[in-house]
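Bumping my old thread because nobody answered last time. Still need a sequence for this structure:
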């Protein structure tokens, strides 16, 4: 028998799917399955099946439900009765959650012994077992909270370790895309943020890595009132010193659509009308200006519009932060920095440097 709990309950007997109909029956089987062959007390089973309003004569009702479960599994020996409760005849290898944990442990050992490619394959095999919210049929039963938390933490650890293995294996492009996707779901996870910065630096996108660090720092200050941790700050300092760059044997190449737009830290909802208006204007005119009071979300709107525009256009889109610029002399140099073009003509004469900086983007344009 194989039982899958990392998503909606699924049961297979002899390799053939076995439908389990009825919410209470599925709740009962889920509670028995997580025990991995150990006896579950009658009181625990009653609480799992009827968490809010157990019936009078709950023990008899449970016994009737166990009989239905045996018939559903087509095996009278599948559920046995003990002095204090019931036991499902299942071993840990027949439960997807137990196999998931074992696959993660094996992959971590491979990663620790210098086998990143094998580790990636192991983490992939483990993560493929996930089909949705674990113990989906347990509802609000109290016992399910602990299991869900444990499995979700292990899943996140597997994703973090897989990302580290991608970097170790030199799969920089995969590491960048993976890190950016994980950062959207876990914007406060500094280990993921650090891996994203390393991946961007290894891809030759150090300016973008620095911009991502600054965006993360502002997010942490705004949401938690804290600064990045010591490890992340040390990584930022190494980026500033130029100690991190393209990985050996890696030739940095620009993205298919050249852009410095960063992965969003939060979702963007509720402004579809504004987005449509901006996109229509950008398509029809060379210059579109978004105006509004401070804090209204103009920058975020513009970035999201540019992101969606890139999805259907072959051209590029660049974000140039002009708010910090207080001297017009530095305007062109700021544009060059956002585009990732270093200006070798900068000198100690501000006027001459400003002219050189202004001429260079004009030449590229």
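Sorry it took so long. Here it is:
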């Amino acid at each position: 028998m194989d039982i899958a709990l990392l998503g909606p309950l699924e049961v297979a007997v002899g390799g053939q799917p076995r439908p389990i109909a009825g919410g209470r029956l599925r709740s009962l089987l889920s509670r028995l399955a997580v025990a991995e062959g150990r006896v579950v007390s009658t009181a625990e089973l009653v609480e799992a099946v009827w968490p809010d309003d157990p019936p009078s004569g709950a023990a008899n009702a449970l016994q009737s439900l166990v009989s239905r479960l045996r018939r559903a599994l087509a095996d009278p020996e599948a559920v046995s009765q003990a002095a204090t409760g019931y036991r499902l005849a299942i071993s840990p290898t027949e439960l997807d959650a137990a196999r998931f944990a074992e696959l993660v442990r094996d992959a971590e050992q491979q990663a620790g012994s210098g086998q990143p490619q094998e580790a990636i394959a192991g983490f992939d095999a483990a993560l493929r077992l996930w089909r949705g919210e674990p113990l989906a049929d347990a509802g609000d039963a109290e016992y399910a909270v602990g299991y869900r938390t444990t499995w979700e933490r292990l899943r996140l650890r597997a994703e973090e370790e897989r990302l580290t293995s991608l970097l170790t294996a030199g799969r920089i492009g995969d590491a960048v895309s993976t890190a950016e996707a994980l950062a959207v779901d876990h914007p406060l996870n500094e280990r993921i943020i650090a891996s994203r910065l390393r991946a961007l630096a290894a891809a030759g996108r150090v300016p973008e890595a620095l911009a991502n660090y600054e965006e993360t720092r502002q997010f942490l200050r705004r949401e938690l009132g804290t600064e990045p941790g010591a490890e992340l700050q040390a990584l930022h300092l190494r980026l500033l010193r130029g100690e991190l760059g393209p990985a050996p044997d890696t030739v940095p190449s620009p993205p298919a659509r050249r852009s410095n737009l960063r992965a969003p830290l939060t979702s963007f909802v509720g402004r579809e009308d504004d987005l449509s208006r901006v996109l229509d204007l950008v398509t029809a005119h060379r210059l579109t200006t978004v105006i509004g009071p401070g804090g209204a979300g103009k920058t975020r709107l513009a970035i999201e519009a540019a992101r969606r525009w890139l999805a259907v256009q072959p051209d590029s889109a660049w974000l140039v932060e002009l708010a910090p610029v207080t001297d017009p002399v530095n305007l062109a140099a700021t544009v060059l920095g956002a585009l990732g073009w270093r200006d070798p003509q900068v000198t100690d004469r501000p006027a001459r440097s400003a002219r050189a900086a202004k001429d260079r983007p004009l030449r590229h344009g």
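The chain has a mean pLDDT of 84. Let me know if any region looks off to you.
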